[in-house]
Amino acid sequence: MLSLDFLDDVRRMNKRQLYYQVLNFGMIVSSALMIWKGLMVVTGSESPIVVVLSGSMEPAFHRGDLLFLTNRIEDPIRVGEIVVFRIEGREIPIVHRVLKIHEKQNGDIKFLTKGDNNAVDDRGLYKRGQHWLEKKDVVGRARGISNGTRES
Amino acid sequence: MDLLVMKEEALYLRRNVEDFTGPRERSDLAFVTFDITADLQSIFDWNVKQLFLYLSAEYSTKNNALNQVVLWDKIILRGDNPRLFLKDMKSKYFFFDDGNGLKGNRNVTLTLSWNVVPNAGLLPLVTGSGHMSVPFPDTYETTKSY
Asked: How many angstroms separate the CA atoms of B45 and B133, rounded?
């Protein structure tokens, strides 16, 4: 019944009003897109807001929480930071804490990560034969958090 | 954020072993025992959900200009006792170097830092004001047990 009312409303509009409504709708969608793209530029990250997928960082992050990321290449990687990284060949990024870093004079760095809630470091998750992560594996740094919906 | 932090190391020795936690190269392995006294009450406010506390060692070697290794960490939830009085703690994670840069290294600094995890908002990393220098000996130990 609702759909019929909506169609009646549309039929009652003249062409100009119809175009106006379509443009209005288009503006709202464009604004949302602009805000999202703007966030991408400001943070430098491809996905400035991500959802926590696993419980490996509990009790800090629970599944469903929102994380706000930045990805400035100039930011040095230091222990204690929460980085979002991708393992070669895997699509899903992982959000864990940096446990160890070894950085050379020229800036080349290799580091190890571990989830707060995991008993061991992430070496078991890395690619076969891979013992360290590098700057190129990082897709972001967690800078802010917002509680999401709780499963229970 | 002000709080009083003091750490002291008690004993330290190193061995030249294959890094069994990862790359199979012979690297220095260090053992550090420490005490931690801290009062974190002032960091907890209405928005702080938990603190991720960690003790890290920072030093320079011939191989690497900067090395940082987390030796120990602890999660302190809001409501837990914010006063820490830990004695004779052993490191939680193996203190392996990337190479042999710990032998005779006089400039290894231990710092206590924490990550403030709010209910909502920014996730700052704060370094405590106290820090300790741990001068490592020039020789390896093979007999001591940890």
From this structure: 31
